[in-house]
Amino acid sequence: MTPQELRALCLSFNAVVEDFPFNPETSVFKVLGKLFALTNLDARPLTVNLKCDPEDAIRLRADHAGLIVPGYHMNKRHWNTVTVDGELPDRLVRELVEDSYDLVVAGLPRAERLRLDRP
Prior knowledge:
- This protein is α+β, with helices and mostly antiparallel strands.
- It contains 4 helices and 6 strands; from the N terminus they run H-E-E-E-E-H-E-E-H-H.
- It has a single domain, classed as Aspartate Aminotransferase, domain 1 (Alpha-Beta Complex), CATH 3.90.1150.30.
- The protein has a 6-stranded antiparallel sheet with strand order 1-2-3-4-6-5, with helices on one face.
């Protein structure tokens, strides 16, 4: 997955914006103000921090040692840093990004979740 594809994927979800609160290099993707993906699109290797269910996070780290690790500068229980350099299947990366988005949306107040469902 290229940096452009990762960016397009993150922006493809409903109500997502890209923000740069830390520095001009770090893209922060948010849904209704809540972070679900954080990356430096110019970094090599390309990595992205994604929210993850704690049990899934442990399994993914074991299954993909070195490519999925505890979230860098994040809560290690709930966040993974995923290396997006082609060694992981693009399909898995897409699923992990979508899961991160879904977990953040699930934590939003009901009224905001309902607003997301409207066309």
